[in-house]
């Protein structure tokens, strides 16, 4: 156990890009299982090899830059999902858009019609 621990000391480990590589490899394995295509196995081994190379690498700065670039590419896709789930979990506020400037406004939940004043354009509207 100590020998394995000493071998893995100083390695980069797992980050978001590695997780995505592993998930893609698993999806390809499942697709290969149902389609009986051997080229899927080769493709899967490329993804798993990249995963292992990145996880066992001692070049932390290079792997960090790769992951940062990946997250920068993924941010436009992930950010709206996080915002939507955050709004679903928020039970105290209601979110609406100002019809004049299209700004998203957070308002405490209340029963009935509420007059809302937009903090950006100062327009008032009922919701």
UniProtKB/TrEMBL annotation:
<keyword id="KW-0812">Transmembrane</keyword>
<feature type="transmembrane region" description="Helical">
    <location>
        <begin position="12"/>
        <end position="34"/>
    </location>
</feature>
<keyword id="KW-1133">Transmembrane helix</keyword>
<protein>
    <recommendedName>
        <fullName>Zn-finger containing protein</fullName>
    </recommendedName>
</protein>
<feature type="transmembrane region" description="Helical">
    <location>
        <begin position="40"/>
        <end position="56"/>
    </location>
</feature>
<keyword id="KW-0472">Membrane</keyword>
